[in-house]
Structure formats: C-alpha cells, structure tokens
Amino acid sequence: AEAALHAARRKLEALAGLSQQEARKKLLDNLLDEARADAANQVREIKDEAERTAQREGRKILGLAIQRMAAETTAEMTVSVVQLPSDEMKGRIIGREGRNIRAFEQTTGIDVIIDDTPEAVVLSGFDPVRREIARMALERLVDDGRIHPGRIEETVEKARVDVEQSMTESAEEVLYELGIHGVHSEVVRALGRLRFRTSYGQNQLQHSREVALLAGSMAAEMGLDATIARRAGLLHDVGKGLTHEQEGTHVELGWRLCKKHGEGEVVLNAIRAHHDEEPHYFAETFLVTAADAISGSRPGARREMFDGYVKRLEKLEEIALEQDGVERCFAIQAGRELRVMVEPEQVTDAEMTRISETVARRIEEELQYPGQIKIVVVRETRAVDFAR
Fold first, then answer.
1. Residue 307 in domain
2. Is residue 360 part of a domain?
3. Are residues 20 and 92 in the same domain?
C-alpha cells in the first residue's frame, strides 16, 4: 500500500510538473495573495467608512458650535458723529481764528469736519482709539461750554484715561462671560485694546470672543477641555492689542506677553500655530485655528480694502516716528497730510526742514499712493510761570 501510494504521488508529480514541496508552496502563496487582497479591501472599506464618519461628525460638531453662538456683525467705520445742542456751538468749537479746532486736532490726531450738517460735527481718523478719545472729549467740552486750548488739552487727557479704563472693563466682561479666570492684568489690558482694533473691518475683541465660544463648543462635543480651548481662542490674537506700542508681529508680541505672564502651553501653541509659525501640538489648538477661520470667513465679517487703508496710514506714521526727536505724529485728511510733532529741546528750527525732507523721501521710496502727501513738522515751545 505504501509503495502504491508512493507510485501514485510520483505519477501526479510527473503529470503536474511539480514536486510535492513545490505544489505545497504554490498553494500557500496563492492563499497568502488572496488573504492579502481580502485584507487590503477590508482596510480600504474601513478607512473609507472612517473618513465618511469623521466628515459627518465634523460637520455635526461645527454645525452645533455655530448654532449655539449668535453674534452680530458690524462693519467698522472711520468716522464718528458728535451731536451739538445748536449750530452756534460750531463757531465756539472753531474758536477765534481757528485756534480751538487746531488745538483739538493737534492734541487728538483726529480731523474735525464742520460742514452744513445741522447740529452735528464729524470726527474722522483711521485709529479707532484716538477717535473714541476725541469723541468723548468733544462731547464733554460741548456739555461744559468752556472751550479753549488749555481746557481742550485737559479734557482730552482725562478722556484718554477713561477710554483706557473702559477697554479694560470690556475685556473683564468678556472674561467673566466665558468663565476664564487668573489672567494677568497686563494681558487683560492688551485684550481690552482689541475693542478698538479691527482686522479687515472686523472688530477684534468680538472676533476673539467668537473664536473662544466656537473652540469651546467644539471641544466639549469632542470630549476635550472646553475651558482651555476657550482660553486659547480668546487669547490667540491678543498681540494685536500691542502692535501700536511695540515693534514686532502680533503673533510674536502676543506669544511673548502670554509666556511672560504664565499662560499655559496650549495658549502659547494656539497663538503661533493659527498662523502656521509652529505645528499644532494639541487637539485644542486645531480647534482654535478652525474657529478662527470660521469667524473670519462669515459673509460680511471682513472687508479687505479697509484694512489695506489702515495699514498704509500706520506705515506713514511709523516712518515719521523713526526720526530722532519726533514725539508724536498723526496721519490726517485720509492720509493726505502727515502732522509730525517734535521735541523742542532736541530739534532746532533748522533741523525741522531736514526731518520733513527725510520723511518725504522715505515715503516716496517705500509707499505707493495717489496724488501727494503733505508733511507738516510742528515745533511748539511753551513758557509756563505762576502768579502768586
């Protein structure tokens, strides 16, 4: 029987042209190929199903987050209107030979437009903080009735302090609404300045609040830390509150400020990662970037031309401020005039001409603009004494 079986096996091998070991190997290879193909198909089906599920869940989470947050969209303007009790007040605002209106414009850096509009004066300027200070000061001067250069300076300074206080209070209200605690006072101050900052016409404090609410809502749906996501969302653009005071991008300024005052790694990563300056190291920072894109991309939320206009005027002022001895400068008349105030102790009358020529040359080299820009350098000297 053994011999017959052996003979039959040899006969089969001869007919097939394969040895027993070769046949076994071929069968195993075929089985492995089939198993691999089946496994690959199954993996592809699982992957496709996972992607479909992820997209469906992602849309659901975004939809829920957006529905939960209702926010107004208002386009920022470059003018403020101050109502007057009567048209007779316009003459008092202008003053004898225009001394009052000149003092007001020089102190605030804002254009005062007095035309045929009944019982109203228009304040025009690209910087919303300056414009708010000017509005508050002019309303107080009108209510008080005493309008002269000395009183104007005093009222503008008081308005400046009050606007700073109101910005801080606005930031504290948003922090309270979002349930965020333990934020350093310097960070709160920078956050408050966003109330009067815009990006493409979108109010930045409102934008940061929207990002915080969206990121927090999405984090809660995904089982992540909603409080951390809200904190990172609120502070992701905090550096924009410092760009008027310090050199550097808003990303770097915000990152340095938050690091200095003890904000966590998630907040620091969100500040840099939402502008692709470093990778996203935390799930919450991905949500902040997504929320930032949602808030900024809503129809009507932003206007690109407005932001370009503001950037041109900021660059004008920056060129003048880089000159030695310059104390303050204001771009007025929609950027057609640059008024430069110099320190009288540091700059002589002869040097004023050099400053105006240098600024004019740099503007010609570095900026593109229609028409011409008038550079006015002002050197004001005062002698103060007291009669006792």
1. no
2. yes
3. no
Q: DSSP letter at 273?
A: H
- Report the CATH number at residue 188: 1.10.3210.10
Residue span of the structural domain in which 360 resides: 314-379
In the chain, % helix, strand, coil (3-state, to 5) comes to 65, 10, 25
Residue among 94, 84, 95 at smallest CA distance from 117? 84
Portion of the chain with pLDDT greater than 70, in percent: 82
- Flag the least confident range among 9-13, 139-143, 222-226: 9-13
In this structure, of 151-165, 301-315, 356-370, the range with the lowest mean pLDDT score is 301-315
Strand partners, 340: 329, 377
How far apart CA 250 and CA 40 sit, in angstroms, is 48
Q: What one-character-per-residue DSSP string does 140-204 give?
A: HHHHH---SHHHHHHHHHHHHHHHHHHHHHHHHHHHHHHT-----HHHHHHHHHGGG-EETTEEH
| pLDDT (tens digit per residue) in 199-214 | 666 678 888 998 998 8
What tokens were used for 34? 């089939």
Write down the number of H helices and E strands in the chain.
Answer: 14, 8
Return the DSSP state at 344: T
Evaluate if residue 32 carries a pLDDT over 60: yes
Domain assignment present for residue 171? The answer is no
Q: Is 205 found in the same domain as 117?
A: no
Q: Which residue has the higher pLDDT, 186 or 116?
A: 186
pLDDT of 113-139, one tens digit each? 888 878 888 888 877 888 889 999 999
pLDDT of 360 higher than 50: yes
Number of domain units in the chain: 4
The whole-model pTM stands at 0.60
- Residue 16 predicted with pLDDT over 70: no
Q: Are residues 243 and 269 in the same domain?
A: yes
Q: By the 8 A CB rule, do 296 and 307 touch?
A: no
196 neighbors 206 (Cβ within 8 angstroms): no
Instruction: Check whether residue 203 and residue 290 sit in a common domain.
Output: yes
| Calpha distance 136→146 (Å, rounded) | 15
139 plus 46 within the same structural domain: no
The residue among 49, 68, 87 that closes a domain is 68
Rounded Cα distance between 97 and 259, Å, is 53
